[in-house]
Design goal:
The chain is an alpha+beta fold. The chain contains 6 helices and 4 strands. Helix 3 crosses helix 4 and helix 4 runs antiparallel to helix 5.
């Protein structure tokens, strides 16, 4: 079920994001789309959530009321497929930046140290997750969120896409002959890295598209 609400007290982009993230942390909320300009929130929920529960999770800083008393308005989180795709591409590029930095750094370090294929993959994937999550967590911490809450927000919004991207990048590197055995000066090494990033992007894009279509996304 999806319901529309009026939310007052939002004065900036940070407020908009704070309201959305607070709503997403509430048990039963599956998606939330918030607009500072319209002072509205469209909330999808797995079960009925009382107005008082919504107000409690937002605190005294914001006030939430039913948009149309006596009526629940069903609404799409994003109405146009073009808009969804644009946001999906942006979110995937953001994941690619973090995962790509960690993945490439891991492979370079492992290759330089002469590690085995398994050790190289473990390091690359680990750093990919670390950098991928860090790129989402750091902006939230700067806005006043605690580390634990920031981690939960990024885990919900980006965890799946990061996991999919990392998986396909590793599989691509392992599938291209010579990549895992190549040295840093070998062209095949960098060709494999580039191919892995491209495949990772393609694999994660539909995941982000689906998440954004459902309203589960993190504003970067």
């Amino acid at each position: 079920m999806t319901h529309a609400y009026k939310v007052t007290g939002m004065t900036c982009g940070g407020c908009e994001e704070e309201v959305k993230n607070s709503l997403l942390m509430l048990s039963g909320v599956t998606a939330a789309e918030v607009s500072k300009e319209k002072q509205t929130a469209t909330i999808s929920m797995a079960k009925h959530i009382s107005l008082s529960a919504l107000q409690n999770t937002l605190g005294k800083k914001f006030s939430i009321t039913v948009s149309e008393p006596g009526h629940h308005k069903h609404a799409a989180v994003i109405s146009k497929k073009e808009g969804i795709m644009k946001l999906a591409v942006s979110a995937t590029l953001h994941c690619l930046l973090g995962c790509g930095i960690g993945e490439v750094a891991g492979m370079i370090i492992a290759t330089y140290l002469g590690w085995s294929m398994i050790d190289s993959v473990i390091l690359a994937v680990s750093l990919g997750f670390v950098f991928g999550f860090a790129l989402g967590i750091i902006p939230l911490i700067k806005k006043g969120f605690s580390f634990s809450r920031s981690f939960k927000i990024v885990l919900v919004a980006e965890g799946l896409s990061i996991a999919v991207m990392e998986t396909f990048e590793v599989l691509t590197q392992a599938a291209i002959p010579g990549v895992m055995e190549a040295g840093l000066k070998d062209g095949i090494f960098w060709l494999g890295m580039a191919a892995a990033l491209i495949v990772g992007f393609i694999a994660a894009l539909p995941v982000n598209y689906y998440m954004i279509k459902r309203g589960v996304r993190h504003q970067h």
